Every structure is written in structure tokens, then in C-alpha cells.
Amino acid sequence: MSGAFFPKILENGLGAASAVLVYQALCCMIRVKKNRWCAGILFAGCWLVNFAVIFIGDIVNWTFCLLVFLTAVWFSCEGSGLKRFTLGLMFSSTVFAFNAFYDNSVGILFNFLKLESLHNYLYVAGRAFFALVLYLLLFQRRAVRDFELSAPLWRLMLTLTCFPAGILLSLILLRSPFGNKGTAIADGALLLLVMLSFAGLLRALTVLERQQRLEQENMLAMHNRRYYEVMEQQQFEIRRLRHDLSNHLQTLLALPGEQKDDYIREMLDNPAFGQTLVWCADSTVNAVLTAKKSLAEQKGIRFTARVDIGEELPFEKADICAVFANALDNAAEGCMALSETAKEIELNARFGKGILAMSVKNPCKTPQTGAAEAKPDAGEKGSLPEKNSGSGSAAGKLRLPKTTKKDAENHGLGLKSIQETVKKYGGSMEITRQEGRFCLFLYLPAE
User: Fold this and answer.
1) Angle (CA) 156 161 163, round 5°
2) 229 domain-assigned
3) Closest CA to 417 of 330, 353, 340
4) Can you give the residue range of the structural domain that contains 58?
């Protein structure tokens, strides 16, 4: 009795381990919602897929398991509908192709060799081995599981996924339930081809994600560069006009009284003759804060800055401009929906021991729920969690609040630009909203 008891424990342990590996493999492709019920439902779906017996000619079992799994992925995972459906179909079809190969071709081969008992003994071990291989192949994708392709690219991936999935469906639907050795070999070859096709699709998905990420990073880099070049051009105009001050004075001496007054007023209205405030020892920070303070005052926003930077910052000028300018632009946008008395931006920045730390705070509009302030719902579209952070290479996991502007595709780049800069220097970024105040905090370590 004990001789049969321990193999049974081993078999159950391998079965549980294979289901866990299939679940973890799926989690490498798509993020699961932070809810125990969602994780439990998805794990049950992975267990069902892993142990689904797929016999050639048995369309009912395959259809039932596929629908249950896709439903579990749809309700338990994050991302767009196209992403959830495409990845669910791709993942389940890969596992089903192996199950069909293992249950039919391998089973018939063992039967032909008179080794049915060995096949039964190693049945769970074979599925556990496949689950381990699948997890190891997908483990490297864990870092990009949150990345979202554009809708046309997801439609392309869904179309490509339908071809090997259609081959699998045809094998299960059109083949005879009981084949001979010849048909078993042919079916096995087709099922292996289906699994290789899904491996190719996974590679194509990785390439598309990498290409789209590079395009977004290039777009943000160009956005930052243009921002800095415009500011540089403004500073050049200021220096040029100030250099020509003697010419302006000579012109004033030659003008009659009324024209002289008009000329003076025109000169005073020129921003080039405005004062560039000295906030710190970094010229780029001074230029950005001076420009943003002027814009904030024009919009009726009170601007307070405490800056402790005693030397030129050891970062690229375009990156410094992107971080400070985008942070202040985002704060100014958040103030526009408030009353005149509530508009306020508070900036604190300090550079010391090789680390730049900065925080930008501004009041923000909160939903009204009687006298108490409602906490934001992290799952609500466009809402912001109470605390949202990312650091180092994981900074890409930070979920950013959506822009309030109508043209969302051409706006909302500010926080993304800051996020990419933070990631570039291996820093950390945190976004919080507490007691009606929005706070952006980050630090950048110098190389």
C-alpha cells in the first residue's frame, strides 16, 4: 500500500507544480489584476488548460476548455480587450497543441511499442516538463508584460495567431478519433509545426514590442530636444538683444519725444529684457524656472520654489530641461480646473552627494462625496492610485495618470518624458495624491 501511496503523492505534487508553472508562464506575458479572486480564477483556468485531455476528433472537450480559459483571462487580466483575447488564444493554443501531441501521437507510439503502463506512469511528468520549458522560455518577457501595442498591431497578431490555431482546430475537428501509426506520425508533425508557429509568433510579438518601445523613446527624446532647443533659442535672443543695447540707446537719442516713449514701451514688452532670475548655480534650471514662473503668474498661479543646487548639474541639458519643465507644466495643467485662490505650485529641488532630488506639489480637483474626500479608485479609468512608484529598470511599470486634454494622443507626454529620463539615469519616481494635493517626487543619481 505504501508503495502505491508515495507515487501518488509524487504524481499529485508534479501536477500541482505543472499548474503553477503554467500560471507563472502566463503571468510573464500579461499582468493579473491585483485581486485574489482574479488570481484564483486565472489559476483554475491554467489548471484546466494544463490537464485538458485533447483527443483527435473530440471537439467538445477542446471547445469547453478554450472558452473557460479565455473567459478567465478576460476577467482576470489587465490590458486592452485585443491584448487579452490575442494572448489568451495564443497561450492556450500552444498548450493545447502539446496536449494533443502528448495524448495522441506520443500515446499511440507508446501503445505501438507495448509501453502503455510507462506512458501512464510518466503522463503527469511529461506535462510538468512541458510547463517548465514553457515558463523558462517566457521568463525573459516578464519585464515587458505590461507593454501595450497599438490596436492595429494587436489585430495583426490576432490574425497571425488564427492560422496555427485554425490548423489545430482542423486536426481536432476533421481527423478520425482513432488513427493508426501513419496518421499519428502525420498528426504529430502538424502539431509540432503548430507549436513552432506559436514560438515564432512569440518572437514576432517581442520584436514588435521592442520596436514600438524604441519609437516611443525616440519620440520622447525628440520632444525633450525640441523643448530644450526652443529654450536655447530664447536665451540666444535675450543675449543678442542685450548685446545690441547700445544700438537701442543710440536710436532713442535720435527719436522725437512721442516716438521715444513708444520705442521704450516696445522694448520693455520684449521678453528678452525681462530679468532671468538666479535660483541656483545651474543655468538651465534658472532659465526653465524663470520661464515657468512667468507663465504661472500669467495664469494666476502662485509659484514657490526652493532650490539648493550649488553647481552645474552633471546631466544632459535636454534631460534637465525635460524634468523641470514637464513637471511644472503638468502641475500648471492640474491647477487650471481650480478656483483662482486655490491655484498654487510648490517646487523643492536639491542636489547633494551626487543625487538630484525634486518634488513638485499642486492642489488637484477631487470627487465630491459629502464632507469627506473620496479616495481614488486605482481601477477606474483615468484615476490615480494613492501611491504609484517605480525605480531603476522597473520604472517602466509605473502607471501614469491620463491627460485631461481632449487630444490624448498628442498630449500626456510630459510624465512619460520624465519617466524615461528617470529610467535613463537609474533613478526613482513616485506619484501620490493625498488630501487633495498631487505630488511628483523623483531623484536622479549622477553617473
Assistant:
1) 110
2) no
3) 330
4) 2-217
- How far from each other are the two terminal CA atoms of the chain, in whole angstroms? 66
CATH number, domain containing residue 325:
3.30.565.10
The single-letter code of the amino acid at 126 is G
* Alpha-helical regions (H) of 244-282: 245-254, 257-269
Q: Is 77 inside any structural domain?
A: yes
Higher pLDDT: 120 or 388? It is: 120
pTM of the model: 0.57
128 in Cβ contact with 15 (< 8 Å): yes
Residue 267 belongs to some domain of the structure: no
The predicted structure's pLDDT at residue 370: 39
**What backbone torsions phi and psi does residue 180 show, to the nearest 5 degrees?**
-95, -170
50 and 168 part of one domain? yes
Sheet holding 437-445, edge to edge: 302-308, 344-352, 355-363, 437-445, 428-434, 387-391
Give the pLDDT confidence of 228-272 residue by residue, as tens digits: 666 666 566 555 555 555 565 666 666 776 676 676 666 656 555
pLDDT in tens, 345-388: 999 999 988 899 999 999 887 654 433 333 333 333 333 334 44
**Cell digits for 172?**
481536432
Structural domains counted in the chain: 2
The confidence score (pLDDT) of residue 446 equals 83
Per DSSP bridges, beta strands 428-434 and 437-445 are antiparallel
Say if 231 falls within a structural domain: no
